[in-house]
Amino acid sequence: MSSLIEWLAQTRFSLVIQTHAWIVPAIQSLHIVAIGAAVASVFMIDLRVLGMAGRDQTLRETVDRFGPWLSWSLLVLLVTGVLMVIGEPARELLSFSFWLKMSLVAIGTVIAAAFQIAVRRNEPHWEASVVKRRATQSLAIVTLLIWAGIIVLGRLIAYDHIWGAWSGSQA
Fold first, then answer.
1. Which residue positions in the chain have pLDDT lower than 50?
2. Do 77 and 38 touch, CB atoms closer than 8 A?
3. What is the pLDDT of residue 37?
4. d(CA 78, CA 106)
5. Measured between alpha carbons, how far apart are the two ends of the chain, in Å?
6. How many CB atoms sit inside 10 A of residue 102's CB?
7. Would you give the distance in Å from CA 132 to the centre of its chain?
């Protein structure tokens, strides 16, 4: 891993990011706005599943409304995340918080994609019975917790030394 980090840190693109003081804050700002859009979208869909918001819309209408926001924000998160890794490879790639966050992002993305596909394929079934099931409501709560964990872990990347031996980053 260290040879990859050293190589990546010396690439032309990484050096541009490292040597212009405004680039990292600009990328981080876009990343934060995108996480806000992604989390808001997930929360609105989950709150609809839980019957706590959007009861004047069908589940399909809610997914159609917030799904594109989620998809586009995940794309922006991917691009800005890659740029942050390129710009600060040691900070990211040696961080336990980063890898745990990426695991949660993968899980959250798979759940969101599977959910959107399932709702679009069989809307009447979802609206009539599945939304009322405890398992579906439990999954909504789990996804809320996953995305809250992503936010916390994203912030903890800067303080990764708190994990002690689990983290490869320096204190």
1. 171
2. yes
3. 97
4. 11
5. 19
6. 15
7. 27
3-state helix/strand/coil string of the chain:
CHHHHHHHHCCHHHHHHHHCCCHHHHHHHHHHHHHHHHHHHHHHHHHHHCCCCCCCCCHHHHHHHHHHHHHHHHHHHHHHHHHHHHHCHHHHHCCHHHHHHHHHHHHHHHHHHHHHHHHHHCHHHHHHCHHHCHHHHHHHHHHHHHHHHHHHHHHHHHHHHHHHHHCCCCC
Token pair belonging to 89: 């490879």
- Any idea which residue has 């490292």 for tokens? 18
Predicted structure pTM score: 0.83
Burial class of residue 69 (count of CB atoms within 10 Å of its CB; 0-12, 13-18, 19+): middle
The pair of structure tokens assigned to 113 is 């994609």
Q: Give the length of the chain.
A: 171
Task: Tell me what pLDDT residue 55 has.
Answer: 82
Q: What whole-number distance in Å separates Cα of residue 140 and Cα of residue 119?
A: 14
